[in-house]
Design a protein that fits this description.
Layout lengths: L7 E19 L5 E20 L4 E5 L13 H12 L7 E6 L10 H16 L6 H11 L3 H6 L3 E5 L3 E4 L7 E6 L6 H6 L18 H8 L7 H7 L3 H9 L5 E4 L6 E4 L3 H14 L4 E6 L12
Parallel strand pairs: 3-4
Antiparallel strand pairs: 1-2, 2-4, 2-5, 5-6, 7-9, 7-10, 8-9
Length: 300
């Protein structure tokens, strides 16, 4: 009989926000080269793991019913990938995913879930692996997983594996909004008209929301044009956010989640409340970007 069956580890899987995303080239194998400034929001999913007599997996939350329970789920793939590398330590485990982020929405929900699964299972199984090895395991699951393993402000280059942490990044009050649009990232990449854009400009010292927004005004999300052609309704979300007096409005990743940045948490909360009132069927949440030492918010 297994010892410590009641031990559980719970880790947050925060939303990944591409504040800026430049497409700078394409490799011979078809993967696109990117320059992206990324922050993580104090809102996201949650992964809970515990020892068990047999493997099991269950999901809850507002978007839990939209994901598969088989090997196509990144949580299952992350469990199996870690087990393959450490078979002697990988005892049976029960995994519970609380899914609060919309599916296929440009905020890295699946990748963040996979990263939280890797980190929580490594702790549960007593695996003392170097971060570089965990990142290599994660990269095989998806280009976004290594940066989600970091979970703090960073610049990602290459296909996402070349990561540069960004120190002293100010917290950004923001609203995330999605009107139900789902977009296929491969289709968005295929629809790009230009793939050899300039990289991100050099990152200056950023001490305030105003500093961040001034820098972002010199950058782009090069995927927006392609996404808007494939899913014109993304413009409705952008327009709704622009109507909230935000400092900056942009699409994250390949869409369809958009974000707006505000001067204060109160401004973000007021904007989110108004959007929810006007669009009760949308995903809308007020949050903030995570800084070093900050905690994730409880779900509301």
């Amino acid at each position: 009989m297994l010892d410590h069956l009641d031990r559980a580890i719970s880790l947050a899987a925060p939303a990944k926000i591409n504040l800026a995303l430049h497409v700078t080239g394409r490799r011979s194998d078809g993967y696109h080269l990117l320059d992206s400034l990324v922050v993580f929001a104090a809102f996201g999913d949650k992964v809970i793991v515990r020892h068990a007599k047999d493997d099991s997996f269950e999901m809850s939350g507002p978007f839990g019913c939209e994901l598969p329970y088989d090997g196509n789920n990144l949580v299952i793939r992350a469990r199996d990938a870690l087990r393959q590398h450490f078979p002697g330590q990988a005892a049976p485990v029960a995994i519970h995913l609380e899914k609060h982020l919309p599916i296929a929405s440009g905020i890295g929900g699946g990748s963040s879930d996979a990263a939280a699964t890797i980190r929580s299972l490594a702790a549960l199984w007593g695996i003392k692996a170097e971060p570089q090895l965990l990142a290599a395991i994660g990269l095989r699951l998806g280009a976004d997983v290594p940066m989600c393993l970091r979970g703090r402000s960073l610049i990602a280059r290459g296909i996402g594996e070349d990561i540069e942490p960004v120190a002293a990044f100010p917290p950004l009050p923001m609203v995330l909004a999605n009107n139900g649009v789902t977009v296929s990232t491969p289709q968005v990449f295929a629809a790009l008209e230009k793939r050899d854009n300039l990289p991100l400009p050099a990152l200056p010292a950023l001490q305030s929301v105003a500093d961040v927004c001034a820098y972002l005004a010199e950058t782009h999300n090069h995927m927006y044009g392609a996404t808007a052609k494939l899913a014109p309704a993304i413009a409705d979300t952008m327009d709704a956010l622009r109507g909230t007096r935000a400092r900056l409005v942009r699409m994250s990743g390949s869409g369809g989640t958009c974000f707006a940045i505000y001067d204060s948490n109160d401004d973000a909360e007021i904007a989110a409340a108004r959007l929810r009132q006007r669009h009760p069927d949308w995903f809308v949440v007020a949050t903030r970007s995570i800084t070093e030492g900050s905690e994730l918010e409880p779900h509301r």
